[in-house]
Design goal:
Length: 313
Amino acid sequence: MVALVLVLVVRVQRRARWDPRTCPTDLRGKTAIVTGANTGIGFHVALDLARRGARVILACRCPVRGGAARDRIRIQSGNHQVQLRTVDLGSMESIRQFAQNIIKEEPELHLLVNNAGASGLPQKMTEDGFDLMFATNHLGPFHLTNLLLDLLKLSAPSKIVIVASSNHHNGTVDFRHFRGESLVYHADYVYNHTKLHNVMWSRQLAKRLEGTGVCVNSVHPGYVMTEVLRNYPLYIKVIVNMIGFFFFKSSEEGAVAPLYCAVSEEMDGVTGKYVDSDCSLALPSATARDDTLGREGFETCAKLTSNKLSANL
Ligand SMILES: *[C@@H]1O[C@H](CO)[C@@H](O)[C@H](O)[C@H]1NC(C)=O
Ligand SMILES: *[C@@H]1O[C@H](CO)[C@@H](O)[C@H](O)[C@H]1NC(C)=O
């Protein structure tokens, strides 16, 4: 009983220092893209942006689940400017088509939330010959962001939010892994690796975007019970969900720190930072701050996506 009370206290005390419900930012006339918005953190980020009046484009892989999310967000926010566009972040061609349509049809883009990510995937190669988790969590978002950079610059001040994780502290930089060439495959290892690359990338991108009015920050949303567990076996889901009720955040709580980066006035003009789950600026790992590695990662990814735009950065 005492333990239960203590646990409940712990749960209550984990509040962030910023609350989206008291943040007055109005987004009418602004356009936002949220990847992986059909569920979890992405869904709640998109819902909050829609409530603020933004035109919100849900970038999801599955048309059925994405469509259901779009309908729920429209109903819950009363905002009918919520659209679904499908994209598979594991496919460079799908990303190119998605970005091409956005550039053709949207005159402006003020906010890009790179939220989509996967964990626990078995080793698999994408059609482009990349490790699937690496492509989904890092290379795909990297490619997408580069293709949308001109539009973001044109619409400045604009913001890019990259959902990373404090797991990046345990990540190892391993360029062999981009094409799945590491000798060992361990889902946890790859996940941590992709999140480290996300933090390094956000810092490099911020440097390259200095003076453009486009801000880029990465964020640790906290440990959230969401669909990130989707690819794990049922028994792991059950165990994690039981423990998780007390120690993990709900997806709504997990959306708070990404929303802090996206809509809080405190983050206006702030770029190249790493935001912790309590909505404070934090120092990422020493590896994440290594600019030589960061540049190498950035240039390698730019070559892999053979994206002229990023090569010019
Ligand atoms: C990945 O990161 C988590 C949390 O930071 C850590 O507990 C885990 O041991 C790491 N896994 C590997 C294989 O490094
Ligand atoms: C994960 O990182 C933390 C913080 O740097 C460290 O204390 C811990 O030993 C690491 N765990 C693993 C499994 O590497």
